[in-house]
Amino acid sequence: MQERTNEQWLTELRGPxxxxxxxxxxxxxxxGLRAALxxxxxxxxxxxxxxxxxxxxxxxxNLDSFRGESRFTTWAKKIAMNVALTELKRRRWRDVSLExxxxxxxxxxxxxxxxxxxxxxVAFQNMVLAKLRSIIDEELTDxxxxxxxxxxxxxxxxxxxxxxxxxxxxxxYKLLHDARKKLKLRMEAVGLSPQEVLAAFDEx
Amino acid sequence: xxxxxxxxxxxxxxxxxxxxEIGCDECFEQMDRFAEIEFFGSVAATTMPLVHDHLxxxxxxxEKYEALLIAxxxx
Lengths: 204, 75
Fold this sequence. Notes:
The complex is a heterodimer. Chain A has two domains: 6-93, Rna Polymerase Sigma Factor, Chain: A; 100-200, Arc Repressor Mutant, subunit A (Orthogonal Bundle), CATH 1.10.10.10. Chain A is 69% helix and 0% strand. Chain A has helices at residues 6-14, 19-37, 45-61, 72-93, 98-103, 119-139, 142-153, 158-164, 169-189, 194-200. Chain B has one domain (4-73). Chain B is 75% helix and 0% strand. Chain B contains five helices and no strands. In chain B, helix 2 runs parallel beside helix 5 and helix 4 packs across helix 5 (59-73). Chain B is elongated.
């Protein structure tokens, strides 16, 4: 495969004979996807090839948005990774509803205190948990609570949660950011430093 | 709703929170530049702190960034 500068990539891809550049770019994307996804693409090369094809379409229709701040191939690979990971997560989570995810969490606490802790340490942990629960109830909106549980606690991809909540990933990130800021302010106001809390619960 | 097992994740997320953070779109726009700086041995956190913070706070974007680093490495 010939080495190309950014300018050469753009000129060839926009030119009357883009096929060679397209083929080289496709090969680059497939190689990158294979390395990055490992066994996650279902062990079937057809998935990788589909992702590369879809990425090529997005790349070609967004050539004007390439800002030249990185190598063209890096920018193109970024798009390919986004295409692949978004689709893989959509497949992985497609049968999980937000309602089921939230319903799994009961009002009673799960998880017992480490039996090796002193009574004072257990009491501190229980106090922190109780305080945090009331801060969450008082400070966060219903949407913020749902998003926080789904994304931060249950690990559901933010794009998947956004889809189910009828919004987009960017907006949901901002919603979560606002929630985190509120929690941080309240924790500091009641004398709960996040670092101290983490240290108190570090039982490892 | 919140239990002992959740505490670490939640408090860690709160501890990492900054007053100003960029969103996923803005992080994605700059991710290729950030990834190349890191790949070629510099510390992108100092020149692109907002991207660095977002990647620390957003699992989805972090995963895309890690995949991109690997893809850059295979040439």
